[in-house]
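Hi V.,

Quick status before I head out on leave. The structure for the redesign project is tokenized and pasted below; the design run finished overnight.
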């Protein structure tokens, strides 16, 4: 019997377990949207601004976030093509856009100061579905 053709089931199991552990370690140790800086302090400039979800915020999200490979169905991330998900994750959106985490640098998309201010004011004013 040629022993070089027989595989040891214990070594394959060990290799599989090591591979799974390595994948989990790498996934948990990478940067994520969950590691957020503290939210920005509220701005008094927002008190007089009437920012609309439909007119102001959704177009920003559609152009910069709800794009192929990012916050759409099937990516494992929050689907921002669904309005309820935008409203539910308003604070997270604000924190990530204000800190510059989102949209990710290097993807060719970035938010202007006006867009960041619109999102921040929308959230500060209650993140209304308006």
């Amino acid at each position: 019997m040629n022993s070089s053709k027989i595989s040891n089931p214990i070594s394959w199991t060990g290799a599989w377990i090591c591979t799974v552990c390595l994948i989990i370690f790498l996934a948990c140790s990478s940067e994520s949207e969950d590691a957020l800086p503290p939210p920005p302090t509220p701005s008094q400039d927002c008190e007089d601004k009437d920012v609309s979800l439909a007119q102001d915020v959704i177009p920003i999200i559609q152009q910069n976030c709800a794009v192929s490979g990012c916050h759409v169905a099937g990516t494992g991330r929050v689907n921002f093509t669904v309005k309820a998900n935008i409203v539910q994750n308003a604070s997270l959106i604000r924190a990530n856009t204000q800190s510059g985490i989102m949209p990710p640098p290097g993807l060719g998309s970035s938010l202007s100061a006006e867009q960041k201010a619109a999102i921040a004011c929308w959230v500060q004013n209650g993140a209304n579905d308006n």
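Above is the designed sequence. Residues 94 and 118 are 10 Å apart (CA to CA).

G. will cover questions while I'm gone.

Best,
W.
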